[in-house]
Design brief:
It contains 13 helices and 16 strands. It is α+β, with helices and mostly antiparallel strands. The protein folds into 2 domains: 307 residues, no CATH class; 98 residues, no CATH class. Strands 1, 2, 7, 11, 12, 13, 14, 15 and 16 form a 9-stranded mixed sheet that branches. A 5-stranded antiparallel sheet has the order 3-4-5-6-8, covered by helices on one side. It has a two-stranded antiparallel ribbon with strand order 9-10. Helix 3 crosses helix 4, helix 7 crosses helix 9 and helix 10 crosses helix 11. It starts with 9 loop residues before the first strand and ends with a helix.
């Protein structure tokens, strides 16, 4: 079977500098012409009217999503593994594997991966290198997606205190079942990792903070065991157009980012092509197609032996909320903190909370310094519980003194959460 046609071009459109991307690396914008559509998202309903989304590779579902929540950008998603990558045409998988040859520049990587990119649907895409965490966004081993339906929070954008923040590629979903894990292969990559080799993968951005790992499952497992991230060559589809007040297209949306069309030399060409490819009917499956996919999955799951449980323990990684709050915080300089604390309004309260959360991830000493400043300022009692929960994770006599002083200086209130946190901390010292 001929999978690729070199006469159908994959066209370079332009380079997006790292400053425009939350993940901090350059990205290539490229166009797929007459793509084979072998890797795509499809939507449909079964005969009972239930909604489904399938990430398909060669018409085989890698990941299944269930329910009306799949149409809600800020809702958690119910997911399961589909048939898995192991049931896809092997020549297609070999092409995916060969696409990962590392290059020093993203433009080199783009040239290397071109033969594989024609499996995509027509449209515009980004290609970038992004450091991913091998978890499900909630601290669990990423390869825990199974045939059992499970609620995932990380494939959603964040809605918090009337603020919305779009997701960004940061965590992984597997594209094959855990039965494919080979411990000898993991050991091989563990040795490489311990010898200084960077673990790499190839992913396709899924939604929210999640990307689907197309290749690199054992490398990602080795990274998880060693509590390391994995560097992923990431494909992100451009999913929307933005318009100015005159209803003229002026921006594109991809991977939670917004890019002005003025960044590129041929903006009119981009939006005209996107206008032609944004046809939702092409993503719709007929009822019988949905029923066939579900039937194939049920037949495979019923004939499978019980999945093997691989327990690699718990590792310490940021979760999806930490990533979102860090993005919301923006600048965390001392000058910005002074400005926010000096304003003392509702928006300043939100900004200070985000700054504090970001410092907890990136700069622990400054986070503790800010915690003490908030504790000693009666204008910021709204953040006191957040601060107490954080400093209660620190084993130090200074924290002990802070809690003792709080218990002495405040009147007893059985509903005071801060008092309970302080009591529990001191009782465990």
């Amino acid at each position: 079977m001929r999978l690729f046609n070199s006469s159908e071009p994959i066209e370079y459109e332009g380079l997006i500098p790292s400053a425009y991307n939350r993940w901090g690396n350059d990205a290539v914008l490229f166009r797929v012409n007459k793509g084979l559509g072998k890797l795509s998202n499809k939507y449909g309903r079964d005969k009972k009217g239930n909604a489904y989304r399938f990430l398909l590779l060669d018409d085989k579902p890698l990941i299944n999503s269930y329910g009306e929540e799949l149409y809600c950008p800020t809702c958690a998603k119910i997911l399961s593994i589909g048939l898995g990558r192991e049931n896809v045409n092997q020549s297609l998988i070999d092409t995916i594997k060969r696409s990962q040859d590392p290059g020093n520049e993203i433009t080199d990587a783009f040239e290397n991966i071109k033969p594989m990119l024609s499996i995509l649907e027509n449209g515009y895409y980004l290609l970038s290198r992004i450091e991913m965490f091998p978890t499900d966004g909630e601290g669990n081993f990423y390869w825990n997606l199974s045939s059992s339906k499970r609620l995932y929070k990380a494939p959603a954008d964040i809605y918090y205190k009337l603020h919305i923040r779009s997701g960004t590629p940061a965590f992984l979903l597997p594209s094959q079942s855990l039965k494919c894990l080979n411990k000898e292969q993991v050991s091989f990559y563990l040795d490489q990792l311990k010898n200084g080799k960077t673990m790499t993968g190839l992913v396709y951005y899924y939604e929210g903070f999640m990307s689907t790992l197309l290749d690199g499952h054992h490398r990602a497992t080795a990274a998880y065991i060693e509590n390391k991230p994995i560097e992923c060559l990431t494909i992100i589809k451009v999913t929307g157009l933005g318009f100015d007040q005159g209803k003229k297209p002026d921006k594109i949306y991809a991977g939670g980012e917004i890019y002005e069309l003025s960044l590129f030399s041929k903006p009119e060409r981009i939006y005209k092509y996107l206008s032609k490819t944004f046809d939702s009917s092409k993503s719709q499956l007929e009822v019988q197609e949905v029923e066939k996919i579900l039937g194939d999955c049920r037949n495979m799951w019923a004939n499978e032996a019980a999945s093997v449980d691989h327990d690699f323990g718990k590792r310490i990684y940021p979760d999806y909320l930490s990533i979102a709050f860090s993005d919301m915080a923006g600048d965390v300089s001392d000058g910005r903190i002074d400005d926010v604390i000096g304003r003392r309004d509702d928006e300043a309260e939100f900004e200070l909370e985000m700054i504090f959360k970001k410092l907890q991830i990136q700069e622990l000493n400054r986070a503790f310094k800010l915690a003490k400043r908030i504790i000693n300022d009666p204008n910021w009692t709204a953040l006191l519980e957040e601060v107490f929960r954080y400093i209660a994770t620190i084993d130090s006599t200074e924290v002990e003194d802070l809690f003792i002083r709080y218990l002495i200086d405040t009147d007893y209130d059985s509903k005071d959460i801060c008092r309970k946190i302080a009591d529990e901390y001191l009782n465990n010292r």
